[in-house]
Fold this protein.
Amino acid sequence: MNDVLCIGRMTSCDIIFTELQELPELGKEIFCKDLVVKPGGAANTPMALAKLGIKTALLTVLGNDLFGNIIFEYIKQTGVDMSAVHKDNKYRTCVSAVLSTGRERGFVTFYDESKYSFKIEDIEQQIKNSMYIYSDIITCIELPIVEIAKKYKKNIFLDTCWNENIKLDKIKHLLEQIDTFMPNEIEACYITDTDDVELALQRLGQYTNTVVIKLGNKGSIAKQKYNVVRTPSIKGLKPIDTTGAGDLFNAGFIYGCLKGLNLEDSLRIANITGGLAVTFIGGVDESFTIEQVMKYFNSSTANVL
């Protein structure tokens, strides 16, 4: 039995060009100071959970190609159970080129959407063998993940995965069936048609038990039934790259819930894991450990307001 099953469509191979002085103009070539190749997208949260000591499985599709083979081995080495990963000869692994100046980023992504497919029986079998289910709204619109998870009375955590067509009236039927929804501030306000994050929190909270909104360097805010908690980000970290910060935040919050922490302490853990994500390049790094997270959690730098 897995603690968490993570289900995602876009598990990508991220090729990250770092320390650029500027983003390139068309027709010009510039040079970066470093190059990193790591898994990204749907791989970030399960890798972070595994690094935190949570028994985690990933259900996704990779191409049986160079990029797929590279990230399969990388994810596996973090401790994620890869037995549910399907390697498809007809599918080409999602690849993202990330151009990072440290202050801003540009992306070019290839996603072979037309050849991407899940088997419903695989989804059901994996859900049956897991305690918590983590996915995103777009994947759950396309696939009956929430319906199957509710059938087996599983705890369901959903991220958003940005899509300009996603509005509250299109997803409230999903929110009513899940346990926790975790958008960022921009997503929450866009979905609920408001510029006020606290109003967005209240509107989303009408449909689901727990709403957690990521506020970037301002920390996070959450509503659980009638209880509203706001916690600050951790201080003293030098930001290098924000890739995967939201995904690692989600991992921290799920970790807190699995460990029986209250809402406030789960947010504190999430702020720490999300904060640490900006101190290295890409979604998960060797330096990201449960010991490092607990060090911040037990120190005054993580105190709540």
Notes: Residues 300-305 have pLDDT under 50 and may be disordered.
